[in-house]
C-alpha cells in the first residue's frame, strides 16, 4: 500500500483523512490533542466530556435503530441472523482478501 495510512482489520484510512476528521472533531470540542510523551511527532487523541456525551447519544440512537429494524425477530432469531451474516462476511473476505489477508 502506498503512502501513509492507518490500517485496522477490514478498514484502511489515509492519514490525511484521519487528520481532517480529528481536526473537525477538535473544532467541535469533541476531542482534544495532547503530545505523546514517548514520541514528540505524535499526538494522543482523547474524548472530551462533550465527546463522551455525543458518543453516548449516538450509541443510544444506534441501539434504537437496530431495535426498530430487527423488531420482527426474536432474540434467538437476531442471534442467528448475526451468525449467518458473519459467516457470509467471513466467506467473502476469504474469497476477495482483506487488507491484511492475501486473496485466495
From TrEMBL:
Residues 1-90 form the HTH marR-type domain. PROSITE patterns: HTH_MARR_2. One of its GO terms (molecular function) is DNA-binding transcription factor activity. InterPro entries: HTH_MarR-typ, MarR/SlyA-like, WH-like_DNA-bd_sf, WH_DNA-bd_sf. One of its GO terms (biological process) is response to stress. SUPFAM superfamilies: Winged helix' DNA-binding domain (SSF46785). Residues 84-104 are annotated as: Disordered. This is HTH marR-type domain-containing protein. It comes from Micromonospora viridifaciens.
